[in-house]
Amino acid sequence: MTVNRASARYEGFGKEGKGAITTRSGVLNAQPYGFGTRFEGQPGTNPEELIAAAHAACFTMALSFGLARAGYSGGSLETSAEVTLDQVDGGFEISKSALTLTGKVPGISADEFAAIAKEAEMNCPVSKLLDCEITLEHTLES
Q1: CATH number for the domain including 82?
Q2: Of the residues 32, 35, 89, 116, which has the maximum number of CB atoms within 10 A of its CB?
Q3: Residues 26 and 74 reside in one and the same domain
Q4: Cα separation of 122 and 62, whole Å?
Q5: Tens-of-pLDDT digits for all 142 residues of the chain?
Q6: pTM for the full model?
Q7: Number of domains forming the structure of the chain
């Protein structure tokens, strides 16, 4: 079992409140977040950005391992994720994570690439965690 930790601190409340996120690894160290970073484009991060980063990273790693299991080596994968936050019934919910993948995998057919990518999309741990629509668009470059 692997356990990772992060913490958040928030001072003040509502729109005037300010927060900071810190991760165990130190990659985020008192990184600012709050209403302004979430909804107004101010410098800092927000939960949806962090979820998008986690989903892109997790999916890409799962796909990498799937391709290795299928006997492929070399090549490259690049994934972006867009996480959508919608206002629903007076609150908010994450409704979608849209993955966009570009891959270069020597010797693979488009159909096999699509199948392995779909399996990774369905089975990466972050996909399993998210209770929202997940889409995957992919391009296989030669």
Answers
A1: 3.30.300.20
A2: 116
A3: no
A4: 10
A5: 989 999 999 999 999 999 999 999 999 999 999 999 999 999 999 999 999 999 999 999 999 999 999 999 989 999 999 999 999 999 999 999 999 999 999 999 999 999 999 999 999 999 999 999 999 999 999 8
A6: 0.93
A7: 2
